Amino acid sequence: MTCPYYVDFTRDCIRTYPMIIEHRDFTPCESEGYHRCLVYNILKSDFRCQHLDTCLNMFPSDLPDFYTVLNQNRVIYDYVTKPVYQYCLSKDNHVHCARYKLKQDGQEPPPGLNPDGNIINIADSTHKNKIVFEKAKKL
Description:
Layout: E1 6-7, E2 10-11, H1 38-44, H2 52-56, H3 63-72, H4 74-88, H5 98-104, E3 119-120, H6 122-128, E4 133-134
Antiparallel strand pairs: 1-2, 3-4
C-alpha cells in the first residue's frame, strides 16, 4: 500500500509543504512506511496548531536534509516527532508549547526551538546524523 498523498508518482503533500520537494527518497511513500511520515501524520490530523506551518517553514533550506536524517534514524525520528504529536497536533496541549507562547507574545522563536523548550541545532544535527543541542538561553 502506498501513501494516499503519493498520487501518480507525485507527492501531493508538497502542495502544503513545498520545502520537502528536495527530499528525493520516495521509499516511505511507496510502502507501509508512509504511516511513519511526519508530513502524512500532520496532514491527516484533525487539529493543527495555528503556528505549525510557520514553525515548519522557519528553516526551509535545512529541512530536506534534516528530513532525510529524520527518516533514516528511528531514534532521531522518535525524538523530533514526539513533541509535534504532543504539542502541535494536540488541541489541549498546544498552548503549552514554547514556540506557541513566544508567538502569542509577538516574539519570533529562535531557530531550532523545540516545543518542549530545548534548542536543536538543525545544521549540526544533519551533519552529524544525531541530535545536537545548543545551550538554551533564557527565553
